[in-house]
Amino acid sequence: MGAGGRMTAKEREAQQLCRNVVHRVPTEKPPFTLGQLKKAIPPHCFERSVLRSFSYVVYDFIIVSALLYLALCHIPNLPSPFNYIAWPLYWMCQGCVLTGIWVIAHECGHHAFSDYQLLDDIVGLVLHSALLVPYFSWKYSHRRHHSNTGSLERDEVFVPRPKSSLPWFSKYLNNAPGRFLFLFVSLTMGWPLYLAFNVSGRPYPRFACHYDPYGPIYSDRERAQIFISDAGVIAVFYALYKLTVAFSLGWVIRIYGVPLLVVNGWLVLITYLQHTHAALPHYDSSEWDWLRGALATIDRDYGILNKVFHNITDTHVAHHLFSTMPHYNAMEATKAIKPILGEYYQFDGTPVYKAMYREAKECVYVESEGDKSKGVYWYNNEL
Fold it and tell me: In terms of DSSP H, where are the helices of the chain?
């Protein structure tokens, strides 16, 4: 009989408590600098290759085309009930691969695709517009997110609220049905609501919208590119309209609409889990600095989807530290800096379906824990 069989009830309880302890990211200023982290990474990790970057675009589009061929030429000919099984498989697989394309477009916005800014912007504009994302609009707001990660006043997305700012109905949703509702709405409508109405974004003095060139999100020098972003999205909507006229609305929804819904769901979930965890602090202006904010993120494990998503999931800490690094070098860079980061590096291998519910349950609002942690805020859920 193993030692566990001789444990008393109290010892088993103590062991379980130890397993459930959340090891928080230290909030003291790190004993290392960004320069020291960069020196630990092999120099070639920062090199961007046009050919290699395009190879991932071509690879993804080959898979997208193969799945599209199956959906157009073979799934409609399957007998019932196999066609009812094949369509959801197509939607999920196509949505996952398109999420990988979304990630490449996101790299273009960070100037991590090539050494040529114009090329990055052209590729990013085409890829993001195809997925109904306003490229420059999101590029600029996302850049500000990277500049202000972990700041309660200036971060751009998934900014947690203090308990006093929660809406009145929060206590009625702090239960299993309420959490499932929150996750359902977030995964299905969260991305378009963020783009159109800045839902879950930082508060602005007036209405903020990613499609509004004159909105408070953007400066005067950025406005022309916001018009270009809008034009890209409008062009794709027009193409979808022409396809609807030619083939029907149901055809467009089956072939394009549902996979896009999957993309949007993955995007929200990935971002949510990267920045929402009981171990991650947030800071007000009295404590925040860029490096500690960048370290207030977490890597996750999505299994085989890590590769499909070009490792944006399990190399997110390195990405926040060095956002112009191409994704194909991020794994090597992560391994190089982990020994230096020590406790400042966070990884959670909890299965995603469990993690999403757990974070929705435990991370309801943030609060400071007294004078010793003044300016530092942690997640709580007691309402």
Answer: 9-20, 34-40, 50-73, 82-109, 117-130, 135-147, 170-173, 176-197, 223-247, 249-252, 258-275, 290-294, 305-308, 316-321, 330-341, 352-362
Distance of CA 29 to the CA centre of its chain: 26
- Can you spell out the DSSP letters for 224-250? HHHHHHHHHHHHHHHHHHHHHHHH-HH
198: left (phi over 0), alpha (psi -120 to 50) or beta: left
Q: Please, which residues bridge with residue 365 across strands?
A: 380
Pick from 101, 138, 136: nearest CA to 121: 136
Distant-in-sequence, close-in-space partners of 375: CB < 8 Å, separation ≥ 6: 283, 284, 286, 287, 288, 368
CA-CA distances (angstroms) from residue 141 to 189, 217, 358? 19, 7, 28
pLDDT digits (tens, 9 = 90+) for 223-242: 999 999 999 999 999 999 99
Peptide bond into 177 cis (omega under 30): no
Amino acid found at 379: Y
- Alpha carbon distance 167, 161 (integer Å): 10
- Token pair of 144 as six digits: 């500000």
Kindly report, residue by residue over 151-183, the tens digit of the pLDDT.
999 999 999 999 999 999 999 999 999 999 999
pTM summary value: 0.93
Inter-residue contact 278 to 379 (CB < 8 Å) = yes
Rounded Cα distance, 280 and 231, in Å:
38
Instruction: Give the separation between CA 76 and CA 378, rounded to whole angstroms.
Output: 51
